[in-house]
Specification:
By secondary structure, the chain is of the alpha+beta class. The chain is 72% helix and 12% strand. It has 3 helices and 2 strands, in the order H-E-E-H-H. A two-stranded antiparallel ribbon has the order 1-2. A hairpin with a 4-residue loop joins strand 1 and strand 2. It comes from Rheinheimera baltica. This is DUF1049 domain-containing protein.
Length: 80
């Protein structure tokens, strides 16, 4: 129940941030390695937020799989 409230609070804060950010229509240059594009400030913030979420979930999944698979290879070779 505590996790659910924490997740709901985070989602609410992100939604409020996007709503306030959507008011700002200022364009900003985003210079990447090979291209340069103009995006609204809120679009850049959402882009980096989603990138951070995906990166965090990927690392958490890899860490979880590593912990679950620890010793798995040894167990399968010991049976032979």
């Amino acid at each position: 129940m505590r996790r659910l409230l924490f997740i709901a609070l985070i989602v609410a804060l992100v939604v409020i941030g996007v709503l306030f950010g959507s008011i700002n229509q200022q364009l900003a240059d985003l210079n990447l390695l090979i291209i340069s594009i103009q995006l609204r400030v809120v679009d850049i913030a959402v882009l980096f937020l989603l990138l951070g979420i995906v990166l965090g979930l990927t690392l958490a999944t890899l860490y979880s799989l590593q912990r679950k698979a620890k010793g798995w290879l040894r167990k399968s070779t010991d049976n032979n």
